[in-house]
Amino acid sequence: MATEEDKGVTSRAEEFLQLFKKGAEFTQELLKENERLRFRLLQLEENSHPRCDDVVVTEANRKLADRVAELEMEKKEILERIAQVERENQDFAERYVEIETENNNLANLYIASYQLHSTLDFCEVLQIITEIIINLIGAEEFAILLLDEKTNELNAVATEGVTREQIPSVKLGGGVIGSVAKTGENFFVDDVSVYRRDFLNPMVCIPLKIKEHVIGVIVIYKLLIQKKSFAPVDYELFTLLAGHAATAIFSSKLYSESERKLSTIQGFIDLLTK
Questions:
Q1: How far, in Å, CA of 33 to CA of 28, rounded?
Q2: 199 and 185 in contact (C-beta within 8 Å)?
Q3: For residue range 134-176, what is the model confidence (pLDDT) as tens digits?
Q4: Residue ranges of domains in the chain, CATH in brackets
């Protein structure tokens, strides 16, 4: 039979074996963990140094990015060029319209000038001036006044939209009309839209003058309903009327007076010869 002492030795031996087994297991775990960490370290070292394939891919990406940047720059330049061409086309279109307008205006001015000098009949000249003011300028109510050098008064000889009796006689130098006749300077109201008819204070007053000698004026009191303001060509027409209309009126008056005088002389001659 085993003694108490033998039992004690056996128990300590089993405890030692258990402790040794646990130490061996712990050592195995340490070795495994060490192996795992070494493998992870190798992976990290490998990733820290790019492979050849990675370098090639990175270089290709860089070249592609550079090409994209070049294409974006070319696209921007093309868009800017297109915008510039569109602006130039717009400028050309606007200039074309301006040239067409100028050509029409020149044609109207030529026709008006030709008509003014197409006759020496005083009444026909007044009618032509009236048509020009209506059709080319767009006036609805206006009058033509001529200066009587004996009385220094301006009297209406033709009207449109108003009667001759409504237009008062004006002394040279008196009021807007008289001042224009004296100075030979055009007169225009500041704002056509707020003007109200006043026979002594017209919307527009244009002197009829031969060189610096004023023989009368054109006064405008109202524009046609579709005309809201004056265009640049209107001022050119006013300038034309100021000179050409005055010349046509003066020439037709001289011709009419000479015809009357010739008719009177011829009458006396006929009486003397009978």
A1: 9
A2: no
A3: 888 889 999 999 999 899 999 999 999 999 999 999 999 999 9
A4: 121-262 (3.30.450.40)
